[in-house]
Specification:
Layout: H1 2-5, E1 17-26, E2 29-39, E3 44-48, H2 55-62, E4 70-75, E5 78-79, H3 85-90, E6 93-95, H4 108-113, H5 124-128, H6 130-153, H7 169-181, E7 187-191, H8 199-214, E8 218-222, H9 226-232, E9 235-240, E10 243-248, H10 250-254, H11 257-264
Parallel strand pairs: 3-8, 3-9, 6-7, 7-8
Antiparallel strand pairs: 1-2, 1-4, 4-5, 9-10
Length: 268
């Protein structure tokens, strides 16, 4: 993608995402217990752990889907703890979901056109007054070009006129990632993007993620498949029972006896 290949965001920090002491309880159950970690800019970082480790809840706390009981989330030096999801997304911290959330009664193209921020046509007076109508049309033309470029990048341009509800599970994952990219994110949080995806499509998704990472995007990837994470991420964070069990390079994590114990279901 030509536009993404030369990203010129001002680097507020080399560590755009910092999570400090996050806690969340549901009744008497502690889902996240003091989670603390950082994500470096321009990297693909993996967040793994057995089922019920607290990975998705941590994602929900970071992105405003849930409010933490304690702890902070800092994004590009700004405390975003407790902000609403759309305000967090507007700042450039965008997520996808384990189950894709496309608008089923709209076409793929229509789903994509809704994603970019700051569209002039969203305000009625700008689309009606003759003085501003031309600028609305000009922007929509530019957005349409971006949409087609992104569809082509993800190899789903042939599905542009198809209703999103008719797509396969893998195609919906591609659509969701493509739509997220159109928001011009700084950091993308991917919640099990390979769940329910066949091996061929999984390879395509991984190729797209690596290419985007090479272009300057930052990824935090939640995944339960340890081999996939170890083979694709430079830094790995392991959760167990709501806590950060360990983190480091894939080699360091593989050599950690506590990680092996956690995945085998023993006591840590």
């Amino acid at each position: 993608m030509s536009e993404a290949s030369e990203r010129s965001r001002p680097d507020v920090t080399d560590t755009p995402l910092r999570v400090q002491g996050l806690e969340k309880q549901f009744g008497g159950i502690t889902a996240v217990d003091g989670a603390t970690f950082e994500v470096e800019r321009g990297t693909l970082t993996g967040l793994i752990g057995p089922n019920g480790a607290g990975k998705s809840t941590t994602f929900n706390l970071i992105t405003g889907m849930l409010t933490p009981d304690a702890g902070t989330v800092t994004f590009d030096g700004e405390d975003i703890t407790g902000l609403t999801p759309h305000r967090i997304a507007d700042r450039g911290l965008v997520r996808t979901f384990q189950i894709a959330r496309e608008l089923k009664e709209m076409t793929v193209l229509e789903n994509m056109m809704l994603a970019p921020k700051g569209q002039r046509g969203e305000r009625l007076w700008r689309s009606v007054l003759p003085v501003t109508r031309a600028s609305v049309v000009e922007q929509e033309t530019e957005l349409l070009d971006r949409v087609w470029e992104t569809l082509e990048f993800f190899d789903i341009e042939h599905l542009a006129e198809e209703y999103a509800g008719n797509l396969s599970g893998g195609q919906r994952k591609l659509l969701e990632m493509a739509r997220a990219l159109l928001t011009d994110p700084d950091v993308l949080l991917l919640d099990e993007p390979f769940a329910g995806v066949n091996p061929t499509l999984e390879r395509r998704l991984l190729e797209h993620i690596h290419e985007l990472r090479d272009q300057g995007y930052t990824f935090l990837l939640v995944e339960h498949d340890m081999d996939l994470i170890m083979n694709n991420c430079r830094h790995v964070i392991v959760m167990h029972q709501g806590r950060i069990l360990t983190e480091g390079t894939p080699a360091e994590v593989k050599a950690n006896e506590d990680v092996v114990e956690a995945y085998l279901g023993g006591d840590v």
